[in-house]
Specification:
Layout: E1 5-7, H1 11-16, E2 20-22, H2 25-32, E3 36-47, H3 50-56, E4 75-83, E5 111-124, H4 136-142, H5 150-158, E6 176-178, E7 186-188
Antiparallel strand pairs: 1-2, 3-5, 4-5, 6-7
Length: 190
């Protein structure tokens, strides 16, 4: 039996009040009357242990004890690394301590692992977030860097990199070189 994913605008709506259910993109698009895209996003609070997360989502995940029908298996638990609160990054190099038989201090944990619920669902394409920002290399040249807000910088950092121009195929390998007497002949470079 195939999984029938909910159709919704966000993961919370997919869990609580979906617009419908569909197994394939075409079914979701037909129900919505517009194109749909499959997304998987995190929802709900973060739990410190897997057991606590399984207990909280008992009716949504098989491992939590209850048996979930095959068509309802669109949720799963994901491990996510988050920064530890109250610890600022260290500045400079660590100094040796030479105490207790140790030369260096114990490293401080900067990240910790938490458990979150990951929900797979169909989202209408009209509700998908659209990024109209330029690449960082263009923004630095066109606008004054001082005018860019921290939120804009964070959004630019999350954008996927796009090539400036299509990559040209390599005509020789990394460890090959043309013969000095005859450039038409390629020899291995040692």
């Amino acid at each position: 039996m195939t999984v029938r994913y909910p159709i919704a605008a966000n993961p919370e709506a997919a869990l609580n009040a979906p617009l419908g259910r569909a197994a394939r993109e075409r079914e979701a698009s037909d129900l919505l009357g517009e194109p749909a895209q499959f997304v998987r996003e995190l929802s709900g609070p973060a739990f410190d242990t897997r057991e606590a997360a399984l207990k909280a989502y008992a009716g949504r995940i098989d491992e939590a004890g209850g048996l979930v029908q095959p068509e309802d298996r669109y949720c799963e638990l994901m491990e996510v690394a988050v920064p530890v609160h109250g610890q600022a990054p260290r500045a400079g190099q660590a100094q040796p301590v030479f105490s207790g038989g140790r030369r260096w201090p114990e490293p401080k944990r900067m990240l910790k692992t938490v458990w979150r619920l990951s929900v797979g669902y169909w989202r209408p394409l009209s509700l998908a977030p659209v990024e109209t920002l330029e690449q960082a290399r263009k923004l630095r040249r066109t606008e004054e860097p001082e005018r860019l807000t921290p939120e804009t910088l964070r959004r630019v950092a999350r954008l996927p990199l796009r090539p400036v121009k299509p990559q040209q195929p390599l005509d020789i390998g990394l460890f090959e070189t043309p013969l000095p007497e005859n450039p038409e002949i390629i020899i291995p470079d040692e």
